[in-house]
Amino acid sequence: MAEAEINRETELKLAAKPEDFDRLRAASAIADRVSGPAATRTLESTYYDTEERRLAARKVTLRVRKTGDGFVQTVKSAPDEDGLGRGEWECAVTSAAPDLTLIADADAIELLGSLSDSELRPVFTSIVERTTQDVTLGEGDGAAVIEVAFDRGRIELPDGRSTDLCEVELELKSGTPAALYDLAQELTQAAPLRLEMRTKAERGHALANGTAEKALKAEKLVLDPETTVEGAVARIVRACIAHMVANEAVTLAGEDPEGVHQMRVALRRLRSATALFRPFIPAAQYLWLVGEIKWLAGSLGPARDWDVFGEELLAPVRDAFHKADGHGRSAVEDLDALAAAAEAKRLRAYEGVREAIRSDRYTAFLLGVGSWVEKRGWRDQPVSEESVRLFQPVIGLADHLLNKRHKKAKRAGHGFAHLPVAQRHQLRIALKKLRYAVEFFRSLYDDKPVRRYIQQMAAFQDALGHLNDVATATRLLHELHDDGSRSAPGEPRAAGIVIGWHARGVADTEAALVALWHDFIDTKHFWSKPDAGV
């Protein structure tokens, strides 16, 4: 990203506790760099949208802010792919109501689309006490000026419902976005902070909609043939982090198992991308990335395992016995006891998830990855044949990497019909890595054959996934009371019923599974110039 421009907003938000504001202001990261006195003002901003929320659906913001005796109307675009920047257009208006006729910029007009003042409704209002100071990082031509804003207030709906907000907002006035991460990392040494990716508008709309946070799948990544290898690394890593952070809130709530699942998928994609581009990443950086990914994935894993056990393995068996009109009454009671024990284990696992997400280490990981990407940290290495390729188009490398991943999957599945469970698990891992590589690079190729390839691979992956879930269930049942708790008398019997039920199902689907493997290896490649023998 280039330096901050007119009509652009480049900022980083950090959730904070109000009692930490004084410590943060006094921290050397701010106190030793301030230029000019602090200014405090109250900002009252009303956000508008149509009845059906057409702007929010595209992450476009329209607000009117009261400033002293006047009003300023602001239009903001959806955040850029790095999550830091977005378009911003301001103009003075005569009242708290928006006036679209005063918007002169063609980009802003196009962003709003066919919208009239009569369609707009006030959705929510943010009332914030803001204290700002400018700080300067660095010297000379490399210096960056950042406005540090301490915001404390609330978001209110017309019906009186509200939610508090407290955050430190770092807005780039001049310099490079990497400076935002430098300052944020220093501030985390003074007080606990968490990266806040949601805008005030997104939080306001969530409150107004009255709906629970939703789990989100990864958005389709778009690369073009001119994208360099370096550019692809940056976009892919950012996309993985954005996918993970987008599922934080629903995961913390712990009510929708899809949240922690999507966070783990994002981490697996990030680890796969790191391995894919390993030749271009200095060893120390690679080891740090992999270490942090393993730590976080390990923190989320038990919750996901118990979600799957409860919903996909235990639930269908319980339902079948409950519908048996009284037959197998003792088995029903045993299965209910097992379900209660498994739910207790799941709830404890989610406590570990929340502890990890709210930890200083998690925040340091997000800021560290963000800084690494903004600074193009992988350039910090001697010039070599590999490092030079960072600046070449990614399309050629994509062909090579897809061939490589496909060959590994094919080798892992050789003689599939006779492979033991452990080797089938290794095949499943190889297929996941291939799947992620395909998803990273799919926009470089014709979509129809890519879609066909993914569909064929996905069917086989799903079948293998069920095998892994059954194997995992056996391990989980052995760990059910490793915390010292006592099992109910009928739990071992119930565990045997669950495992036996699904083991029989696995045996019944073996022929179909072998057929899916052959369908996959017979699927045509969609990439260019396949290597001989693939």
Helices and strands, with pairings:
Layout: E1 8-15, H1 21-26, H2 28-31, E2 39-49, H3 54-57, E3 61-67, E4 70-76, E5 85-93, H4 106-112, E6 121-137, E7 144-156, E8 162-174, H5 178-187, E9 194-195, H6 200-209, H7 229-246, H8 248-253, H9 257-276, H10 283-322, H11 329-357, H12 360-374, H13 385-388, H14 394-412, H15 421-441, H16 447-479, H17 491-508, H18 510-521
Antiparallel strand pairs: 1-5, 1-8, 1-9, 2-3, 2-6, 3-4, 4-5, 6-7, 7-8
Helix pairs in contact: 5-12, 7-9, 7-12, 9-10, 9-15, 10-11, 10-16, 11-17, 14-15, 15-16, 16-17, 16-18
In short:
The protein is an alpha+beta fold and 534 residues long.
Number of domains: 2
> Structural class given helices, strands, pairing?
alpha+beta
For the biggest sheet, the summary is: 8 strands, antiparallel, barrel
Uncertain segments: 1-6
Strand order of the largest sheet: 1-5-4-3-2-6-7-8
Can you characterise this structure?
- The structure is a single chain.
- The N terminus is likely disordered.
- The longest helix is centred in the middle third of the chain and has 40 residues.
- This protein has an eight-stranded antiparallel β-barrel with strand order 1-5-4-3-2-6-7-8.
- It is built from 18 helices and nine strands.
- It folds into two domains: 196 residues, Hypothetical Protein Pfu-838710-001; 266 residues, CHAD domain (Alpha solenoid).
- The chain is an alpha+beta fold and 534 residues long.
